[in-house]
Fold:
Amino acid sequence: MKANIYIDSGAGPCFGVQRAIQMAEELLEENKELACLGDLIHNDEEIKRLEKKGLQIVSHCQIVEQSGKNMLFRTHGETPSTYRIAENYNVEIVDATCPIVKELQNQVIKLSKKIAEQNGQLILFGDIYHAEIIALKGYCNSEFHIVRNVGDINKLNTRKPTVILSQTTKYQAEYKKIVKAFEHKRKTEKATKYSLEVVESICKYVAKRDMQLIDFLGDKDILVFVSGRKSSNGKYLFKVGKKKVKRAYFISNPDELQKKWFQKNRRIGISGATSTPIWLLNETQLRVEELLK
Ligand code: SF4
Structure:
């Protein structure tokens, strides 16, 4: 029985990640020393590839050691204090903050200033330990709250002007639930006289990926999902994808593939997170082909 193997044409890194990788590779190709503050992307295989070219991953407490050297700020952005520390130590900042994230940071500065004048609050929907949220907190000049799920909404005060924003890599369906829960609480608590502004801050690239994956899997029997284990959109997309096929497997490396997964299956779909490089999807396809021989 011959299996047909397909790679999801919508998969592959988003433009922000591609841009950051290109910035890193250009410097490495010029044989320049380059450190990246934190993992450049949530994909260990891609990081290993760049480390072989000379990229060094450093933590915030190592900024002082980078004096006079190049240091890349990744797509998620950094807090204003990180810029200040790097500048104080004469670090050459290579800023790969995604322009969409930069735009959100600017919105947070503007909106938090406005809401502070009204004694209001800013609500950020996101993962408390995600680098983008950690950086965004640094741009808030007002009372702010981070909500991770609908349950967190119960703890909020609705009786004050409110602005709601989302981490760029969250999904629309989840964000809608958060907004709906806040609106419901506001009505129940008779607080609708206080202003509410909801900002559409989810990245359009991320927003369409779940629907694209669902379409792609329409005629597939099995899903092989390739993603770094730390990638939040990887975890989410896998959850969405696995409901659409008979069997689904999450791998971070083609070596994890097992021959027994593919017996009797005909239509195999390979997809990945917004940080999964195309070369890793291609290697996965080759490995599946080998296992089917
Ligand atoms: S997912 Fe969107 S916001 Fe995030 S790095 Fe990619 S393009 Fe930028």
